[in-house]
Amino acid sequence: MALKKWLDKLTLLDLFDGLSVTGRHFFKKKVTIQYPEQKKLPSDRFRGMFRLDEERCIKCTLCAIECPINIIYIDWHNEKNAAGKSVKVLDRFDVDLKRCMFCQLCEEACPTNPKSIWLTTKTYEMAAYDRNESLYLDIRKLTDWRAAENVKPFTVVEQG
Amino acid sequence: MKVLTPTVLTYVKVVLLVAVVPAIVGFVIVLAERRIMGFMQARLGPNRVGPKGLLQGVADLLKLVTKEDITPARAEKAVYFLAPVLAVIPALTALAVIPFGPAIRIGKVRTPLWVTDVNIGLLFLLAITSIGVYGIILGGWASNNKYSLLGGLRSAAQLVSYEVPMGLALVSVLLMSRSLSMVEIVHRQQHLHLWFVFPGLVAFFLYFVSGVAETNRNPFDLPEAESELVSGFNTEYSGVKFAFFFLGEYAAMIVISCVAVTVFFGGWLPPFPHVAALRFLHVVPPFAWFLIKTGFFLFCYIWFRSTFPRYRFDQLMALGWKWMIPIALANIVVVALAILATPGRSNGLFLLSYIFGGLFVLMYLLAKLRQKLTRRERLAAIPASVSE
Amino acid sequence: MADETTPPPEAAPPPPSAAAPAHKPAPPKKVEATDAGAHPWVESIRRAVPDAVVSAKEFARQVTVVVDREKVAQVARHLKDAEDFRYCVDVTAVDWRARQPRFDVVYHFYSFSKNDRIRVKCAVGDGEEVPSIAEVFLAANWPERETFDMFGIRFAGHPDLRRILTWDGFEGYPLRKDFPVEGISTGAAVYPEEWPEGGGPSPDDPNRKAVS
Amino acid sequence: MSDERPVAETDLAAAALAAAESVPVSPHPPTLFEVQEMELNFGPQHPSTHGVLRLVVRVDGEKILETKPDVGYLHRGTEKLFETETYPMGIPHTDRLDYVAAATNNHAFCLTIEKLLGVEVPRRAQLIRVILDELQRLSSHLVWLGTSGIDLGAVTPFWYAFREREQILDFFEEYCGARLTLNCMRIGGLPFDLTAGWVERLMEFVDDLPSRIDDYEQMLTDNRIWKKRTVGIGVISGEECIEWGVTGPVLRASGVEWDLRRAQPYECYDELDFAIPTRVNGDTYDRYIVRVQEMRQSVRILKQCIDRLEPGEIRGKVPRVIKPVAEEIYASVESPKGELGFYCVSNGSNRPYRMHVRPPSFINLQALPRLAKGHLVSDLVALIGTIDIVLGEVDR
């Protein structure tokens, strides 16, 4: 028994075992994604940047109500349209993105079909230099926020 | 060429050594370490600065030089300033006695590839490298920081513990080489057609482990111990002073590797120089052989770092005193006996090589077998632990 | 490229599947609390610590015993020693702002042999002290500190009753109902609230029909 | 405040120097071999405290005499937030408690409200919940493995573990759109059904995972340094664990075979076949082994769940506005760290009157001073790692 223990101790087998793992990995394929050049394609359900479709929005404010941290501000007023019908017009639809936790509850609350507000834009590059200016979305930003970015071709790294 | 007298040449070599080694450290080893560690960790490592990340060393150096140089209030100013210097200078000085290769001829000038061949080379090395640790101890103490102090104290203990087995391991080599001169040691290996690593297998192992410990590298990086002491002795250091510590650590690594190559691996000699079948190896110049071997040991350093956990302070001491020193002493006796007992003296070394080699292979195979058996046992012992 | 304005199909809720009657979940049944005065554990407490039990009920197979404030430690000791509730799961409190006494201190105990929990509650007024059970259950130490920190309920005999989640010197008890959700000014705010011109909620906006 | 002037840098330096100088120097220099105590401020910014935990450690040399944890640096008043919002709106907040295991937090929260409502979750939703739970347990244990390896100086297992965790996060991303703060469960069921091909890819991953775990084990389990650093460190008996309220792998490593998935099964854990790994010594090494074995068990559970998946509904019958009866309820799940419980008091309105979290990390951390006593500073690092705390959960 003691001999076996000595055998193990003196031959350093356990240490060589460990070295063999790192040694093996030295030659294995690396998993690094070279970020700005290569990008990982987000999944279809990926919760990223907000988009809003003003046409579809019925101004029900459910998204603002359901937001756990109250970062959606909606103002609207009634207006007669060309046909003389009273319609709701958005004054303001702001999302204070700097506090957003991307829980998607606003999208879930939206009663329109398809959704008027959604996060599945696959946009995640939202770094900004200014918290209040860049991460505060008004209607203009919400409806076309870097819309072109979404379709910008990039080297897609397959998942997994 | 009257200008290039041996004295002048020596100065040239000194300047080269002091200027070139830091450059190598900066540009090659730092990058190599990070790249190799990265590769072992399934990632790429730094590859952004310059082509393939080759200029990472420059970037690191620039960063360190431009950083604010902080001196903590109530630090021992003079010592605090001196400590990094003390960490670098001995390591660089030690390189003076290392023979990087035999004499070469450039044009009409013929000069050996060492700064000086002191006849007490090995002793000089031991003495000078142990000074380097003072830099760490004093730096830790002078920082007036509890973490640094603990790091410095650890370093002191480590130094005392590991100087001894290192010295003892080298003593057994002295028995084989009969000389303290580094050049003479290499010549002796050439003459015997035998690298001292074979008869000195145990000694080499002890030497290298002690060397890793002396340079404060993983798994013995206790004075630094990033996750425990934050950064240990150099917590308070920044900028150029930190760069000096950095340099000192890597220079010490180089020294340890160079000594390992010179003493155990035949210095600039190619493997088995007398075997006719391996003649083609002589194509590679001796100096390159030296570099390749040194590079291998540096690689081992990095390999160890990326593989092993860190010892604890008291365990490190126990390892040094309870294992390495007794084994080193026993090894000296064995080597001495082998040399004395066999006729012709040097034949004992061959005998010893066979014994050590055979024993090691045998034990390794046995242990491997045992490991296979016990692993199956262990997995079977835990119910349903292995998925189908 | 696909039309940017249409969200991907996942965003729409899946249509309720018609063909899945096999595992149709039962409609929510109204669960009612029942009186648990005759429950053996309650009986046991009643026997061991007289006048301790105020009331007892059972809801969703969870037994709640309301006990007298003064006797909490005794009840805990009894539950631990006699009834084998060896594991103190948690200690917390509830602020019933308008009620008198104001707070409920709530204990959860678990028994490994019974594989069940018991909830012990006691009513505490503002400023009243509850006997600490930190001596009985070591596990109750930090939860009691937290309860003190959050509600200002003092635990008599607690070995180290200091604030734990907020800092020493913090004024107020955050989980009391009269503590504002927005917090109080402690001078520690790093980011003052500010919005760009025209943004953000403004309460005196006449056009404001905003929710939020 | 009228004559406010910018503080010059030299002033700051002078102030710092003055502050440093004001620390009194002991008039009596210590004699040789006298015990010298030192107070070491460990954290809140320290690489090994896994967040913003602060420990005030009284040491003699490197030996720990006393440890005083100081928590609360990450306190965000989550319990107060729950009170201000309707029940479904509370779920995203639970993501931020134990942020390396968001799914189990969601699960515990939803389970509590479902219990209060008396809602039954459809079978498919139950199975998917278990799958998400176990994936989350795997990812949490992988984070633990990596970070506690780094604490002890083994840097490489961290990268391997995170490589695998990244794959798990990919699965989460594909399922619910987020990688870390998942918000992946709803009261009465789930927000989404699985995407096409998800299960097949998961099966592939799950088949591959045991070999990866073998790699970690090959690096650590037999390694003499790893063993030296963990065997016999922070020994705690099962009795003491119960006394301290410690649950989860720590309790199981001390020989108590108690796992809420088995003791009080929720969802469909009662019909799944899995072992509860236990060890008897209750030291850091055993806790390591238990966690590694739990990962292997999770793989087993995942396979069984995948086999049982059938098409069906994913959302139970829950009223649109959730207004439970005015009652109180406690429900708990076995999170990767231990018993994660939610105690909910309802007053019949659509918001919880009081929502209390029983965080395993917080309660387990209590035992740290007990574990650390008499060990060295290096071991303290190992012990913080072995309890597996997440400060988001400790401080809430």
List keywords for this structure.
heterotetramer, B: 388 residues, mainly alpha, two-stranded antiparallel sheet, globular, disordered C terminus, C: 212 residues, alpha/beta, Beta Polymerase, domain 2, six-stranded mixed β-sheet, two-stranded parallel sheet, 23% strand, disordered N terminus
Could you describe the 3D structure shown?
The complex is a heterotetramer of chains A (160), B (388), C (212) and D (396). Chain A has 160 residues and is α+β, with helices and mostly antiparallel strands. Chain A has helices spanning 2-11, 13-26, 62-66, 105-109, 131-134, 139-144, 147-151, and strands at 38-40, 51-52, 72-80, 86-96, 117-118, 136-137, 155-157. The longest helix of chain A is centred in the first third of the chain and has 14 residues, at 13-26. In chain A, 31% of the residues are buried. Chain B is built from twelve helices and two strands. In chain B, helix 3 (77-94) packs parallel to helix 9 (239-264), helix 5 runs antiparallel to helix 7 (201-214) and helix 5 runs parallel beside helix 11. The longest helix of chain B has 35 residues, at 6-40. Chain C has a domain at 31-156: Beta Polymerase, domain 2 (2-Layer Sandwich), CATH 3.30.460.80. Chain C has three helices and eight strands; from the N terminus they run βαββαββββαβ. The longest helix of chain C is centred in the C-terminal third of the chain and has 11 residues, at 141-151. Chain D has a domain at 84-351: Cytochrome-c3 Hydrogenase, chain B, CATH 1.10.645. In chain D, the strands form two sheets. Chain D has a three-stranded antiparallel β-sheet with strand order 1-2-3. Chain D is mostly helical and 396 residues long. Classes of the chains: A alpha+beta (160), B mainly alpha (388), C alpha/beta (212), D mainly alpha (396). Chains C and D meet through strand 4 and helix 3 of C and helix 2, helix 4, helix 9, strand 4 and strand 5 of D.
